[in-house]
Amino acid sequence: MPVVSLSRPCPACARTTEHRHRFRINGCDILQCGQCGLGRTETAGFDPAAYYTEDYFSGGHADGYSDYLGAEPVLRREFARSVEFIRGYRKGGKLLELGCAYGFFLQEAARHFDVTGIELSAEAADHGRRAGVNVLTGMADAATLRQIGHVDVIVLFDVAEHLPEPRETLALCQEHLNPGGIIVITTGDFGSAVARLAGARWRLMTPPQHLWFFTVDSMRRMSAGLGLTVEHVDHPWKIVPASLIAFQLRRMLGLRAAGSARASRIGVPVNLFDAMRIVLRKAP
Ligand SMILES: [Zn+2]
Question: Which residues hold their Cβ within 5 A of ligand 1, which is an ion?
């Protein structure tokens, strides 16, 4: 085998590190930082705007959401629990969600917080606005965040792994946080036992949709480098729509997707301990 240099700039370590080639899937190479364990998708010409369409949320992509709208009651119940979790750190104030999809979480959070969302999918953003929440369509870039101003809570639920430049986005979040404010992130844990055992078949190993595969260590390094303190890390139980479980199982087994409206309305508690939830705080 020829020896090729796998030096890459690691956004978590904030320097160039040696990477290991883990596998190739969906036409993408998956590399992993030898220092912090952060996995990265190497792909050319991936266009998020063309990818996150209505089709993505209704199961049109093999790695997208199956019937997200049909699962609203189940998702809303889960999001209400997330709001209570967040209130353990911050009782109220201004809350911003990056990648708010149809705005289900924001509708729950609006009971306690003054909420705003940013969403790339125009169709999903419209849905949120029709439901009465303040949603800006676009990317979470400097211009969009400037419009919103400073907030007390920023939420990124299963979004960090999609960001082209996660360190830059987290730095922007830090800038737009009031002193003592928090950032709540959920993402897969590439260092978990399930991820390590499943390898290329891990349920969250879905490049180019997922561009990054974080570990607890990579999250800690990236946060520390941006002046954010890690207050909490856990691998929480989640109530998910039965249809999503069926969808992911079928994908893993190479079967074709089959929708079931009834399965969207049934919530099932799940924990593979391969997804983490992190609370970061900016110094008061
Ligand atoms: Zn690294």
Answer: 10, 12-13, 33, 35-36, 38
170: enclosing H helix or E strand? helix 166-175
CA of 187 to the centre of ligand 1 (A): 17
From the list 98, 137, 91, 131, the residue with the least C-alpha distance to 113 is: 91
pLDDT for the residue numbered 197: 94
Whole-angstrom distance, CA of residue 38 vs CA of residue 212: 7
Identify the band that residue 62 occupies on the pLDDT scale cut at 50, 70 and 90. Answer: very low
pLDDT of 63 higher than 50: no
What's the CA angle centered on 209, arms 203 and 213, to 5 degrees? 60
Q: Is 32 helix (H, G, I), strand (E, B) or coil?
A: strand
CA of 5 to the centre of ligand 1 (A): 16
- Spatial strand order of the sheet with 15-25 comes to 7-10, 15-25, 28-33, 39-42, 212-213
**Cα-to-centroid distance, 281 and ligand 1 (Å):** 21
Average pLDDT, the chain: 89
pLDDT tens, residue by residue, 90-108: 999 999 999 999 999 999 9
| CA 274 to ligand 1 centroid distance, Å | 19
CA of 8 to the centre of ligand 1 (A): 9
Are 145 and 176 in contact, with CB atoms under 8 Å apart?
A: yes
Place of tokens 């990579």: 218
